[in-house]
Fold this protein.
Amino acid sequence: MSRRVLVIETSTKRCSVAAFVGTECVAQRAERDDTRHLHAERLMPLVDAVVADAGWTPQSLEAVAVSAGPGSYTGLRIGVSTAKGLCHALGIPLLALDTLELLAHGVDLVGDDVAVWPVLDARRLEVYVRPFRVTNGVWTAEGSAAAVDLREAVPAGSGLEAPVLVCIGDAAAKVEALRLRTDATFIACEPDAARAGALLERAEPVDLAYFEPRYLKEFQAGAPKDPLGLRAAALDPPSHA
């Protein structure tokens, strides 16, 4: 019997949730705010709405799957924490999905031999990428997920020579600007929980207590905001000598 799985995806500023019976998506919702991460306030309402749309109750869930990275530190932390909380409260397993593989499955394939580069913005001039090769419908990972500066190197096993090359993700424009191939297809989009069906077929439970998101890069906080100069004054008080 196909199990009921709730899928959570929060690796970018887009937040999506989907309900699956086996590999079939039966309900989905998504929200996005270009100016900020809305996950902390909107993720649980989206979860409640999707469960209701599917005609389920929380107690009828049999697993929760979460997009586990790489991606936004803030988004991943909230998504994984929420998924863990649901699994702990309901006594069900947690499944971890590779974010770049989930993104790659947003491609509608055309051709028998296709290289797919899922790429997410890693800030500055880097992207997160994990190359895939799809031959006669069979997906093969050609390398591990990595943060890569594509000005200096293309990812190992990239499939740059493949008859068809598709680059998909919110960093597709960055790669297109490099002009590595003039006949490649570039698709600007973000990972979507509703595309998780193929990954759920082989997803295995992870340790609920110890699992952490796959950040790939250390978190780097931005400069603290101090519009009135109060922090600067406190760190460098005026001399009264």
